[in-house]
Amino acid sequence: MTLIHDLAARALHGLDPEDAHTVAVHGLQWGLGPRAKPADPILKTTICGLELPSPIGLAAGFDKHAQVAGALLVAGFGFVELGTVIPLPQAGSVRPRLFRLSPDEGVINRMGLNSQGLEPFAARLARRRERGLGGVVGANLGVNKDSTDRIADYCLCLERLWGLADYFTINVSSPNTVGLRALQTKAALQDLLGRIASTRAALAGTTPLLLKIAPDQDEGEPEAIVETALAYGIDGLIVGNTTVSRPPMISIHASETGGLSGAPLAPMARATLARFAKANRGRMALIACGGIGSGDEAYARIRAGASAVQLYSALVYGGLGLVSRIQRDLAARLRQEGYSSVADAVGSGQ
């Protein structure tokens, strides 16, 4: 069955990238996705108090509207992050806005946070809870492009979805919403996280809250972000998102505007993770994201300080069967290096 799904993934390359993504989501809704075997027990881990069968997660962006969380968990992910969700429906950028860089195994997107809005997203998560469906599912929170109070957008999403997701991610790192990354500066981040902390304090429970930051960081910024996040009770950082930089590539689409993800991002993502791990000194959880497409790469990020990893763009080229292959190879590598768990390997290469 894995071969069939891998062939299907290749067949989708005959379609426009955004149409191919829509078809893939519909296929999962129809029950046509893979059903992975249970993860190797060595991969079981805990992050921010959440028990995961595997540290291999799905990054936000694939399931923007919370339509196929169950199918993605069945496909083998240890956890799934939905969204980005924003308060009001938003069409996003004009098409074409998604580009495959096939020779480089990369992707450029300028989707512009297209979303059906908060209410349909919340309703689907509520149905999951009502049905008692398991698995760790997070919600990635964003803002409408024409919002007059962006922090209020985050707080509204957090309040509305509280109790419906297992963790929340504050996304301040999308390059396709003008000015959003400015929220990563120290003063702006203090304002943002202060208001979010107040909103969180008024809600019952201790659901983890993560901050997703960009890989494009100037000197001193990782240290400032880490200290600010810790000061306001953030439980972990996702390092990072797409990049606006352009490493050498050969694809004809390499000059398209938007955020670059996939294999070309890997060297920058590794370097950024190392900087944040050094600044963090093990004080909160780090999740690595960007250019992860193999068990070896996942293992390298874990040794660099990540407690878990997320992938998305690699699925464009490897299909959903890639998830099981990464888990198998990561488990083998852990045993080969003498580790008895993922946690034992976290930060061992620093």
What does this structure look like?
The chain is of the alpha/beta class and 350 residues long. It has a single domain (2-345), classed as Aldolase class I (TIM Barrel), CATH 3.20.20.70. 37% of the residues lie in helices and 16% in strands. The chain has helices spanning 2-11, 17-29, 69-74, 118-130, 150-161, 186-201, 221-231, 266-280, 295-303, 314-318, 321-336, 342-345; strands at residues 45-47, 50-52, 56-58, 79-85, 98-101, 106-109, 136-141, 167-171, 209-213, 236-239, 259-262, 285-289, 308-311. The strands form three sheets. The protein has an eight-stranded parallel β-barrel with strand order 3-4-7-8-9-10-12-13, surrounded by four helices. It has a three-stranded antiparallel sheet with strand order 5-6-11, with no helix packed on it. β12 (285-289), α9 (295-303) and β13 (308-311) form a beta-alpha-beta unit. α7 packs across α8 (266-280). The longest helix is centred in the middle third of the chain and has 16 residues, at 186-201. It is globular, with a radius of gyration of 19 Å.
Task: Count the beta strands.
Answer: 13
Q: Indicate the low-confidence ranges by residue numbers.
A: none
Number of domains: 1
Q: Give me the strand/helix succession.
A: HHEEEHEEEHEHEHEHEEHEHEHHH
Morphology: globular
* Quaternary structure state of the chains depicted: single chain
CATH architecture: Alpha-Beta Barrel
Strand order of the largest sheet: 3-4-7-8-9-10-12-13
How helical, in percent, are the residues?
A: 25-40%
